[in-house]
Amino acid sequence: MAASTEPARTQPVRGEAYAVVEQTPEDATPKAVGYTSGAEVDAQSAPGNDGTAETGPSVEPTPVDEGAPSIDEWDQATFEAYSPIRESEREMPDVEQGGSVGQVTGWFEPPSETAPAQADGIETILTPPAVQERGTEDRNCTFRESINATDADGDRHPEYVLYRSLLVCQEDANGNGVPEHVVAVARYVELWDNDSSGKFNAIEGVQAAREIVDADEDGTVEYLAQGLWTISAVDADEDERPEHVLITFVGEQALDRTENGIPEFYRAAALRIEITDATSNRIAESASIEGAMLQTADDGDDGTREYLGVARLSAMAVDANDDGHNETMELYMGAYERVDMDVDGTPEVERGLAVEIEVIDATSNGFPETAEMCVVMFGAVDASDDGRPEKVHAAKVMAVAVDDTDDGNPETRTLDLLAVAIVDEDQDDVPEFLAAAVGHAEALDADSTGIVERATLSLRAGARADGDEDGLFEAESYLSIDGLVVNAIEDEFPEETTFRLRAYERVDGDEDGFPEAERGIAVDARAVDGNSNGFVEDANLTVRAAARVDNSSDGTPEAAAFLVLWASTTDADDDGNPELESVKAYAYAYRDEDQDGVKEEQAGLRLIASRVDANSNGVYETADLEFVAIHVHDHDEDGTQDCTSWVVVTYHAEDTDEDGTWDVQDLVRREHREDC
């Protein structure tokens, strides 16, 4: 066994384990260490830093002098002191109008359920032309068209032209004169050239299409689809720039398999696009689009609707002074669907989405003074069908940009998030499950230069489960995120960037206040570029994590695990070449099943790595690494370890002539294993 503890060495790649350097480069390490100390003081005053993330060598296990590591180097109390669990905030974010199912349902307003206009006039269009000038016919299809022109002054520039056509295709498999499938398409187009100049001033066009299916050939249609398209354009001054254009469409589909006149499925859609350019300069003074779609299902085929889906779209732009810069732009999109299986008017399931955008450029200079957007998502389940949902979820995202100076550089830009999910099965306003999130992001450009001086991010989220509704939570989880970017010098390089994250969750099934399991993590990061030249003088990262298991729920964990990590880089002379970069990580875990303070099993890990570029020329003179892992068992719990296994790895490298190639490398691995 003793032989297993003998060092196992690898030969250096080049040189000896120790090399004499005839000319020692200037050592910037003291300067770097001093700068780091100052940065740590600054970090404590950074927004969002509560002091718990400071670089604390007190948690570092102190190695014993002997060659073998000891589990005593990992002190539980020290790790407990750095545990993020102890600083967890068990507070739910406050969501405005989100505390109950009734409040949340008010977030969303469904679009109008009015059905789009039907395709009137199709019957008139789908008739043969009065005068057939040309036509073709094959086994299934017949095409007819006619052109009527009026040329009152005989200059071969007709003042009026009417074009009509009709295509009919039908399939009659058994030849009984009752087609199973018919498709018809017709066009009716009118053109005017009032001054007989050879250029048409106006056009009015209509296209109609219809498809029917009568599979059983009884004369009653099982399926119908039809649509009507129209176009209207006026070019009064004949400059090929219409002053007014209007395009419309209406269409519908119906499926009536039982042929009782009550469709089991119905869909209708409508679209309207209108553009006005009164000055005929190809800059529209107004433009708009409106669309609607409605879809229903009648599963019982009794004239009621178990399912309804509706969507609506409207958008509008106004350029009143005709300068190419819209003063107002608006957009609305809404969609909603619901299921009401018992057709009592109270849906069992419903969901919806709404988007609203508004942009205002009152001065019409191309730089909007305000731009706003709101997106709402909503869903609800009312299994009891009493009008009060048992489950509801909703989210609202709002974005605003304000440019008071009207120079194209918004002074403020904000983004807000509200989200909530509630389960209240017995509908007593005491939810069995509640989740909520509140977020806010903001960018400030106070002097309106186009360079943001300060940007912030804040997010709070939480979830709770209270199955028995007694106010004591069986499970909880919480998250908080804070970020800050400061660019006071107003260039492309922020002087300070910070990030803070906290997450925590716990399970307390018996609701006695002692969680059976809990875990948490804390992350803090900061980068400082004080003179804003793009070279960060100091950057550091701290990560702390912990987990506990207390199956007996008596407040004393049977097992726990911890992690602490620090990483930093220091560039004291601010030339882009850090003088010192280092990483330190420590982890510890134990198991004490009988909770008597004598642990049956423990494990520890230590990683320390660094590299030094003392003269800051971009070539590292030295690099060092130490890795230690240990695992011990004390089965009889007498305080003496029954078996111990460990591994120690050390690495040292030197580049004495600083040519980018290591002149000395020393790697040592020592290992000891005991089976038990």
Explain what the structure shows.
- The protein is mainly beta and 676 residues long.
- Among the domains are: 1-74 and 514-676, no CATH class; 110-318, no CATH class.
- The model is unreliable at 1-65 (pLDDT under 50).
- It starts with 7 loop residues before the first strand and ends with a strand.
- The chain has a 28-stranded antiparallel β-sheet.
- It has four helices and 28 strands.
- It is elongated, with a radius of gyration of 38 Å.
- The longest helix is centred in the N-terminal third of the chain and has 16 residues, at 29-44.
Concise overview:
The protein is built from 4 helices and 28 strands.
Topology summary:
Elements: E1 8-10, H1 29-44, H2 76-81, H3 101-105, H4 122-125, E2 134-137, E3 141-150, E4 160-171, E5 181-192, E6 202-213, E7 223-234, E8 244-255, E9 265-276, E10 286-297, E11 307-318, E12 328-339, E13 349-360, E14 370-381, E15 391-402, E16 412-423, E17 433-444, E18 454-465, E19 475-486, E20 496-507, E21 517-528, E22 538-549, E23 559-570, E24 580-591, E25 601-612, E26 622-633, E27 643-654, E28 664-672
Antiparallel strand pairs: 1-28, 2-3, 3-4, 4-5, 5-6, 6-7, 7-8, 8-9, 9-10, 10-11, 11-12, 12-13, 13-14, 14-15, 15-16, 16-17, 17-18, 18-19, 19-20, 20-21, 21-22, 22-23, 23-24, 24-25, 25-26, 26-27, 27-28
